Amino acid sequence: TTSASGKTTATVLTGLVFAPRLHYFGRTDNLKSSALLPTLNIQFDSLHAYVSATSVFLSNPVQSLIYAGTVAETGYRFGNFNKFSGNIYLNKFFYNTTQLPQSALKEQAGINVSQHTKPINFSAALSAAFSGERTDFFSSVGINRIFKKQLKNAVLLITPTYVMNMGSQNFSTVQYKNNQGADVAVIEKNRSFKILDHEISVPVVYATKHVYLIATPSYIKPDSVVTIPAFPHLSEKAEKLFYVNFSALYTFKIKKK
Asked: How much is the pTM?
C-alpha cells in the first residue's frame, strides 16, 4: 500500500480461538466435536482490503487435535457512510476431512452490513454458498447493543446480540408410488428457503492496546430441521446448544518507514 511516511500500511491480528461445540446453524456432527482455531488477519488500511486464514483442529471422543482444514478469506471493508459499515468477502474452504458440519461447501461469497444507531445497532447479511453440485443462498438479520466501560489501561465491551439466520434448504422427501401393483418408496429432492436458526450471544471483550481477550456465551436454537423417520440417514442432526467460545488475540501495526 502507499502512504505518507510513518502512516500505518497494515494492521495484523493473530491469535487462537477455542470453540467447545462446532455447528452449522445448529446442525452438528455425531461426535459433538470441539475445535482449536489459530487465525491470522491482515488489514491493508489505505486500501480497506484484507486477507485472513483460519485453520481448524478437531477434538472429539475418538480423536484429539486432528487437522480438519483451513478457511481462507479476502474482502473489502467499508464504514462510516451515513452510520453504515460492513464488508464484502469471498471464502475458500480447504478440507482435510469430511467431519465438519459444513464440509460440503467449497466457496462462499457475501456481504455484511451494519447500521449504527442509538441505542440499538442493526445488521443484515446476504451470501451464496457453492458446493459444486448446487448453490445455496443465505441471509440473516440481527440487532445488538454495545455497553462500553473505560478502564485504566483497557476497555471492556459487552454486546448482547440476537441473530436470525435464513437460507435455502435442500432436503429429501419420501413418496410412495404404485409400481405394477406394489407401493414403492421413491426419494425426491426438494428445496425451500426457511429460517435455519436463532442465535443469542453476549460477547465480552477485554481490550488493551495490543491484546484482546474475548468470551462469547451463545445459545443456539435450530429451526426447520429436516427429519425423515423412514430414512434416518437422510435426516439432519440438530439440537439446542449452549456454549462459550474463548479467544486470545494479539494485534500490531506495520508502518511505512
From this structure: 0.83
User: Which whole-number Å values give the CA distances from 75 to 4, 138, 219, in the listed order?
Assistant: 24, 18, 28
Q: Cβ distance 28 to 236 under 8 Å?
A: no
C-alpha cell at 128: 451464496
Residues 6+ apart with CB under 8 A from 22: 28, 29, 33, 34, 35, 58, 100, 101
Task: Please tell me the distance from the alpha carbon of residue 33 to that of residue 28, in angstroms, as a whole number.
Answer: 8
Burial 232-243 (b: 16+ CB within 10 A, else e): eeeebebeebee
Report whether 241 contacts 23 (CB < 8 A).
yes
Q: How far apart are CA 86 and CA 10, in angstroms?
A: 18
Nearest to 91 by CA among 117, 136, 129, 126: 129
Q: Is the dihedral of CA 230, 231, 236, 241 positive or negative?
A: positive
pLDDT band at 175 (very low <50, low <70, confident <90, very high): very low
End-to-end C-alpha distance for the chain, whole angstroms = 12
Q: What backbone torsions phi and psi does residue 51 show, to the nearest 5 degrees?
A: -135, 150
Which residue bears the cell 446480540? 161
Q: Among 19, 62, 24, 20, which Cα is nearest to 237's?
A: 24
SS3 content of the chain, % helix, strand, coil (to 5): 0, 70, 30
Burial class (CB in 10 A: 0-12, 13-18, 19+), 58: buried
pLDDT in tens, 26-66: 888 777 889 999 999 999 988 899 999 999 999 988 888 89
